[in-house]
């Protein structure tokens, strides 16, 4: 026993080795030249993350707007009523999707801050990372508004909220102070100078909402910088921007490079398609029959608008051309068993028909697709920037310039040009163009439509323009204050 | 390698010479011979010791109980003794032959109880320790050592809902002691700490001792919080020079029982169900009576200072579903050898186990219950034959042909484990012994998973998929102790123990899964799967190792067999703790006194009150939790061009934030009890009351994402959670156990044994540490479809752990809609709790001549269960056109409920039950054969009946949520019977045990 006791004395304190992972020290001590790029890409992969999945930031943008809903089919999609509450603007701070959105943004911010500490002197990298962090804040200011500002210099314990105006100033300075250090090449999946300008355009166009002070001219200028760069052009085929192989799109400015194997998280076929649609696209997994578009929104599209193909409507077929037949169609469904996506949705809850509602078809569902798509998701697209410019011009009284911009977009869509513009027409055009691109909620707020009633949604209170700070985030950080009204 | 054999030979020679000399000296003229018999049966007692009183001269009886002893002048009295019998003294007088009848002493208080690092006389025990002997074990087809004890020890809860032979038992001592993975008691097998139960066959067990309270378990320090179970295997033959061969063989028939009633095909169609035109009893198609076979053979014996025991145990257990089975071969060799006049003792215990198991997707049980009863099993269409292998399938949500599911997915595993343990003891002085033990416990598992190309659930979309997984675990322990015993005064005895130990654990494994096959080659040829990245594929490996250092000591005092004191302390350093908190110290103290030695206690032959207090710990389940390890992220193609491959790397992401303060969980337990014996120990028993406080539980806690990490200054939280120590839990309980030894006259003897526990359920006093933590933790949603979002188990500060919350059902509208008290989860009411208020076990053993009858009743009360089958499948809602409905005694039928199934109070049922757990009728055939010492034939039944109001599959307590694989939250959601529960089974066993001389 004694030798053993002496042996123990020599090694009483123990070091834990890590065999199958690395620690922060390993990263700091590494000399691998690829590491810095991989770490940067890892920070980007946080942004790719769960954007396009169910229960995500995309979900809360879409389902809370007049574009989409998730009708409850009996037990299916009841899910505690959260998607009904989301659509009716009756959500509370405990919705899981809010917490997911919060963590989605802040994990990227934490990761970026750690990298900024690790590589403080690599100028091009730190500039890019600070703008990337601003992108997370661009989502945060839009959804939760008053959020804590955490940068690499933050110390101490749990941070407290900043006002939306302070967050605005932080985003603005983060972009402006760093964008001149960014590359000017068309780098679709990373931040470049024009991405930064586009972010500024999106920030300024909403300045009145975010800060109370309009910044239309700056929005216009930033949009113009992107449009006039010559790096981007509208695709003649609108859907080339959303196809499975859309990496070559001339129009997409910043995309999330999803890949069914390497970068998963874009689950649209599962989210929107009917169970039987598995046979239409030979999908690897059975879809969940959830997200559908509202009838009124769909009917707004002119029939010859190519963008109306953003919806899947009408009879559905198997890949071999046979008509799909849903033997479990509800007895009361007037469309019977042959599977047909009908614009009319009989009710939001509790017993929507299984085949009711047109589905999101804007993104190509390639045959044999996995539950996560290969299509890159366009976060920022030239079509959007052109419409931002048009809106900024129109709001400054430059109606002629605005009309030209809007008609550029309409021409590509194969619809007649407008003779004159109104704000409502711009709002409508944004709806046609930006469907399913997580833009509608922000647009509705900016155009003053957000609190109005629509299908299965009553008039909502003014404070619903901001989502609540997630309860879980407040539990983890008691220094956070809830947004007004919640 | 040094050859020790010549040394051993010379040692043996020295022994033989010494022995011979001693015998020569003692050669005498007069002698006495006789026979020692069992007083009850009149059978000879071989191996009994016959001594001349006041001398060291004596002998042992032979196989026929006979002895011959040389006498010297002045020899007057013989002392005859044997384990399990009362010692008897006989006057020699002038007799030259003598017959001595020994009375059995089953309830001997001199019984030794195994405690940590040694054993103690039961009378000296001052903490809550219970020993269980083979005659008390459960009967029937017992496949797992834990099952031997089910219901036998107050406070030890052992459950296995459903009858799946591949499922292990959930073992909990005195309720929950951790949120995490180590909720089962620590197993110490023949002194090997943390051994796997795979290493021992139930048939080879000589005794099981349960260290129930914190004081007894504290000698195991940071591994003792969940209690300790000490298992001792049969060591050797009892008597010198003999060989004992035992063969035990039995066959078991398993049948499904207690199936939930469902609608027939006609009733289903009448309710509006989709009619596919057939009539299929899906459960009947899925299940079949199953036969299982078991054979145990052992040989044991001794010669000189050598003892041996070798055993082979073969068990082939088949499930009630084709494709479920468990075949096990265990081999054991226990050897001990004494040297230097037995001052030096060597022990070698070797155990090898091979287990081959096969299982199906448990969802088949659910689909067999709810699949459309008008659907045929097969469909003779080109499409069905080509895509589904001829099985009937339809494109409906959550709708899979159960027979196809059971046949077209396969999950097998082969576990090879071995436990090698070497031990040497040396008596430096007669009262000073040093011991060293080295053990290696190794377990290797090879798993294969397979989804046919025609499996509609997974394989069809994946075009066939297969997987191979290996897991390897090795644990090496080196421990050394020093033990000293002395009489300080003529009344005060002291025993001191000191020790040190080191434990090294390594886990490693490999996992590969591919898809897209041309033929269903499965895991035998993963290379034939074309796709190796993306969905339904995997390539991964893992490894971790850790070290635990220990120093420990214990002192026991016995004053005149009247007052007893024990104190111990263990200090441990574990590599997996945070660097700021590496060493934990775990003390314990206990006292007791036998009042019958001081006062006249009337009917009491023993009355020993005792008080104890002990601190134990619990280790984190993974040694790297404190470090915030970075794991694998996405594959990153740096230039985005898939044609250039030399710039593709896997990103790194931090999955939890580091915590340099992370440490062990702590349990402080106070126990007060009384051991008693009455009417000259005809009645024996004990009562115990305990309170325990558990603190610093390990939990992954949400933190301010992106904010500075307080546990790793200078860095930010990149994960949304950090492992910290948090929470305080308080629990208490009352335990009672009593046994009456052999009531009755003549040949009919009845021995009843009762134990019960009343729990003061675990209360959550806090779920936080500083700013971090929770006001409540909600877990376990009922599930898909539609009930995915509102958890039903609430763990609230100030309330009991695992309360079931939901809306109260106030009634139904006339057309059958629910009237619920609320739809808001914050207004949910407490509807029940899944953990029991009490548990009991009642053993009855009868003996009549050669017959024996045992039956054992077991039950639990005060626990509720969420009946998931009712919660999803009893309403006549639109979905009931697709899925069959259950119709239990609790299903409302007038009116039928038409609401969409929503969790509410009506699905939470009182699950109190009494079960005839096992019964056995045995007959000892009288034998006069010179080669046969006994022959026993027995018939046993398990799970004969259950009395309960619960209408689900099995009212057994659910300590964990079977659908929650996260070890850290599974135990926080008790009380849910999931729909995939394996059906209950009833078993009948016929067997024979033969002992050869």
UniProtKB/TrEMBL annotation, chain B:
Keyword set, alphabetical order: Cell outer membrane, Membrane, Signal, TonB box, Transmembrane, Transmembrane beta strand, Transport
Compartment list: Cell outer membrane
Residue stretches making up the TonB-dependent receptor plug domain: 121-228
Entry annotated with the keyword Transmembrane: yes
Signal peptide: 1-27
Keyword Oxidoreductase: no
Gene3D superfamilies the UniProt entry points to: Carboxypeptidase-like, regulatory domain (2.60.40.1120), TonB-dependent receptor, beta-barrel domain (2.40.170.20), TonB-dependent receptor, plug domain (2.170.130.10)
Pfam families: CarbopepD_reg_2, Plug, TonB_dep_Rec_b-barrel
Chief location category: membrane
InterPro entries (alphabetical): Beta-barrel_TonB, Beta-barrel_TonB_sf, CarboxyPept-like_regulatory, Plug_dom, Plug_dom_sf, TonB-dep_OMP_SusC/RagA, TonB-dep_OMP_SusC/RagA_CS, TonB-dep_rcpt-like
PROSITE patterns, A to Z: TONB_DEPENDENT_REC_3 (PS52016)
Ranges for domain TonB-dependent receptor-like beta-barrel: 396-944
Membrane topology summary: Multi-pass membrane protein
SUPFAM superfamilies: Carboxypeptidase regulatory domain-like, Porins
Family (UniProt): Belongs to the TonB-dependent receptor family.
Full protein name: SusC/RagA family TonB-linked outer membrane protein
Species: Algoriphagus oliviformis
Lineage of the organism: Bacteria, Pseudomonadati, Bacteroidota, Cytophagia, Cytophagales
């Amino acid at each position: 026993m004694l030798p053993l006791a002496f042996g123990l004395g020599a090694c009483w304190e123990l070091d834990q080795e890590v065999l199958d992972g690395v620690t922060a020290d390993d990263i700091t001590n590494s000399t691998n030249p690829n590491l810095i790029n991989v770490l940067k890409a890892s920070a980007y992969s946080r942004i790719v993350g769960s954007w396009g999945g169910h229960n995500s930031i995309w979900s809360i943008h879409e389902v809370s707007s007049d574009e989409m809903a998730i009708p409850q089919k009996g037990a299916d999609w009841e899910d505690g009523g959260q998607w009904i509450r989301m659509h009716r603007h009756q959500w509370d701070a405990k919705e899981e999707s809010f917490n997911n959105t919060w963590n989605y943004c802040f994990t990227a911010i934490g990761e970026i801050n750690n990298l900024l500490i690790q590589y403080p002197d690599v100028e091009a990298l730190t500039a890019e990372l600070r703008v990337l962090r601003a992108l997370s804040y661009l989502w945060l200011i839009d959804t939760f508004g008053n959020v804590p500002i955490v940068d690499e210099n933050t110390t101490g314990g749990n941070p407290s909220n900043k006002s939306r105006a302070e967050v605005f100033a932080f985003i603005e300075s983060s972009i402006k102070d760093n964008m001149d250090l960014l590359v000017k090449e068309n780098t679709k999946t990373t931040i470049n100078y024009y991405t930064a300008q586009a972010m500024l355009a999106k920030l300024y166009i909403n300045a009145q909402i975010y800060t109370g002070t309009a910044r239309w001219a700056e929005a216009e200028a930033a949009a113009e910088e992107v449009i006039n760069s010559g790096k981007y052009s509208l695709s003649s085929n609108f859907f080339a921007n959303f196809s499975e192989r859309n990496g070559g799109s001339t129009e997409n400015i910043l995309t999330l490079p999803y890949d069914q194997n390497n970068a998963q998280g874009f689950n649209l076929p599962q989210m929107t398609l009917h169970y039987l649609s598995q046979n239409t696209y030979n999908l690897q997994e059975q879809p969940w029959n959830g997200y559908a578009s509202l009838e009124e929104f769909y009917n707004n599209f002119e029939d010859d608008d190519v963008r109306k193909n953003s919806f899947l409507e009408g009879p559905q077929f198997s890949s071999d051309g046979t008509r799909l037949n849903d033997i479990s169609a509800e007895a009361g469904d007037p469309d019977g068993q042959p599977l047909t996506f009908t614009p009319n949705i009989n009710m939001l809850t509790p017993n929507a028909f299984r085949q009711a509602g047109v589905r999101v078809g804007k993104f190509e569902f390639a045959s044999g697709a996995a539950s996560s798509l290969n299509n890159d998701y366009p976060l920022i697209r030239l079509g959007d920037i052109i419409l931002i410019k048009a809106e900024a011009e129109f709001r400054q009284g430059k109606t002629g310039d605005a009309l030209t911009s809007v008609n550029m977009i309409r021409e590509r869509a194969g619809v007649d040009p407008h003779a004159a513009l109104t704000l409502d027409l711009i709002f409508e055009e944004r709806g046609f163009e930006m469907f399913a691109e997580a833009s509608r909620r922000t647009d509705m707020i900016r155009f003053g439509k957000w609190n109005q009633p629509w299908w299965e949604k009553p008039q909502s209170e003014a404070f619903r323009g901001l989502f609540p700070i997630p309860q879980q985030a407040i539990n983890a950080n008691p220094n956070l204050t809830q947004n007004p009204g919640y | 390698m040094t050859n020790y054999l010549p040394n051993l030979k010379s040692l043996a020679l020295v022994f033989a010479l010494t022995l011979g000399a001693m015998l020569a000296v003692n050669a005498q003229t007069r002698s006495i011979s006789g026979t020692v018999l069992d007083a009850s049966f009149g059978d000879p007692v071989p191996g009994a010791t016959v001594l001349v009183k006041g001398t060291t001269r004596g002998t042992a009886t032979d196989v026929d109980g006979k002895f011959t002893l040389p006498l010297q002048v002045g020899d007057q009295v013989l002392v005859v003794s044997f384990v399990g019998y009362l010692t008897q003294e006989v006057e020699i007088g002038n007799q030259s032959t003598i017959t001595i009848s020994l009375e059995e002493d089953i309830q001997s208080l001199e019984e030794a109880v195994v405690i940590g690092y040694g054993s103690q006389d039961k009378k000296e025990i001052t903490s809550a320790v219970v020993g269980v002997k083979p005659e008390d074990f459960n009967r029937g087809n017992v496949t797992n050592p834990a099952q031997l004890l089910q219901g036998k020890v107050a406070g030890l809860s052992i459950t296995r809902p459903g009858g799946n032979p591949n499922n292990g038992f959930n073992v909990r001592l005195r309720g929950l002691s951790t949120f995490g993975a180590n909720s089962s008691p620590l197993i110490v097998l023949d002194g090997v700490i943390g051994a796997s139960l795979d290493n021992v066959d139930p048939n080879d067990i000589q005794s099981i001792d349960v260290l129930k309270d914190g004081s007894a378990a504290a000698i195991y320090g940071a591994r003792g919080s969940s209690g300790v179970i000490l298992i001792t295997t049969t060591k050797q033959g009892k008597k010198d020079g003999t060989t004992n061969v035992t063969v035990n063989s039995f066959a078991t028939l398993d049948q499904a029982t207690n199936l939930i009633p469902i609608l027939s095909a006609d009733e289903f169609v009448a309710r509006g169900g989709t009619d596919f035109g057939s009539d299929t009893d899906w459960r009947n198609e899925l299940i079949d009576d199953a036969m299982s076979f078991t054979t145990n053979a052992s040989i044991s014996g001794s010669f000189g200072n050598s003892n041996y025991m070798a055993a082979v145990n073969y068990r082939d257990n088949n499930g009630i579903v084709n494709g479920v089975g468990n075949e096990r071969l265990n081999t054991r060799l226990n050897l001990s050898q004494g040297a230097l006049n037995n001052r030096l003792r060597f022990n070698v215990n070797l155990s090898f186990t091979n287990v081959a198991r096969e299982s199906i997707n448990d969802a088949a049980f659910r689909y067999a219950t709810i699949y459309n009863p008008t659907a045929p099993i097969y469909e003779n269409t080109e499409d069905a034959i080509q895509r589904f292998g001829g099985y009937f399938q339809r494109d409906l949500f959550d709708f899979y042909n159960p027979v196809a599911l059971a046949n077209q997915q396969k999950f097998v595993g082969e576990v090879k484990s071995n436990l090698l343990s070497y031990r040497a003891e040396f008596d430096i002085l007669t009262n000073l012994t040093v011991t060293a033990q080295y053990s290696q416990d190794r377990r290797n598992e090879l798993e294969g998973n397979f989804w046919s190309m025609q499996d509609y659930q997974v394989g069809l979309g994946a075009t066939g998929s297969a997987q191979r997984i290996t897991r390897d675990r090795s644990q090496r322990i080196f421990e050394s102790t020093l033990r000293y015993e002395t009489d300080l005064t003529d009344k005060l005895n002291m025993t001191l123990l000191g020790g040190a130990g080191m434990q090294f654990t390594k886990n490693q494994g490999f996992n590969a899964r591919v898809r897209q096959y041309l033929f269903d080659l499965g895991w035998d040829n993963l290379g034939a799967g074309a796709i190796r990245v993306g969905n339904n594929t995997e390539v991964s490996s893992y490894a971790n190792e850790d070290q635990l250092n220990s120093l420990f000591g214990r002192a026991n005092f016995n004053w005149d067999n009247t007052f007893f004191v024990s104190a111990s302390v263990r200090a441990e350093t574990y590599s997996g703790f945070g660097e700021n908190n590496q060493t934990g110290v775990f003390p314990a103290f206990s006292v007791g006194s036998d009042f019958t030695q001081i006062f006249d206690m009337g009917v009491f032959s023993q009355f020993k009150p005792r008080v104890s207090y002990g601190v134990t710990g619990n280790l984190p389940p993974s040694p790297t939790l404190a470090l915030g390890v970075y794991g694998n992220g996405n594959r990153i193609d740096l230039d985005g061009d898939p044609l250039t491959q030399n710039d593709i790397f896997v990103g790194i992401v931090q999955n939890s934030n580091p915590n340099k303060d992370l440490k062990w969980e702590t349990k402080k337990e106070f126990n007060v009890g009384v051991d008693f014996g009455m009417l000259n120990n005809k009645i024996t028993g004990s009562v115990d009351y305990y309170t325990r406080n558990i603190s610093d539980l390990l939990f992954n806690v949400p933190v301010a994402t992106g904010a500075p990490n307080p546990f790793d200054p200078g860095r930010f939280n990149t994960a949304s959670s950090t492992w910290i120590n948090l929470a305080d839990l308080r629990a208490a309980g009352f335990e009672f156990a009593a046994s009456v030894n052999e009531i009755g006259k003549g040949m009919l003897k009845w021995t009843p044994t009762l134990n019960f526990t009343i729990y003061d359920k675990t209360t959550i006093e806090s779920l936080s540490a500083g700013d971090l933590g929770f006001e409540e933790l909600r877990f376990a949603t009922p599930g898909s479809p539609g009930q995915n979002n509102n958890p039903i188990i609430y763990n609230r500060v100030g309330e009991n752990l695992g309360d079931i919350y939901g809306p109260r059902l106030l009634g139904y509208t006339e057309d059958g809609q629910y009237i619920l008290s609320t739809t808001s989860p914050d207004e949910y009411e407490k509807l029940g709790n899944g953990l029991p208020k009490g548990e009991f076990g009642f053993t009855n053993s009868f003996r009549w001549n050669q017959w024996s009858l045992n039956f054992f009743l077991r039950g639990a009360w005060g626990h509720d269960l969420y009946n998931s089958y009712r919660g999803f499948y009893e309403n006549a809602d639109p979905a009931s056109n697709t899925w069959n409905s259950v119709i239990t005694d609790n299903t409302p039928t007038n009116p039928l409920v038409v609401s969409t199934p929503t969790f509410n109070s009506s699905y939470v049922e009182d699950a109190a039950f009494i079960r005839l757990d096992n019964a056995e009728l045995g007959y000892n055939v009288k034998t006069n054969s010179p080669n046969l010492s006994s022959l026993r034939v027995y018939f046993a039944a398990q799970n004969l009946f259950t009395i309960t109001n619960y209408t689900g599959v099995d009212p057994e307590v659910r300590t964990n949520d079977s659908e929650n694989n996260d070890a850290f939250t599974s135990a926080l959601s008790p009380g849910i019977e999931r729909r995939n529960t394996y059906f209950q089974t009833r078993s009948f066993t016929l067997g024979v045990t033969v002992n050869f001389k």
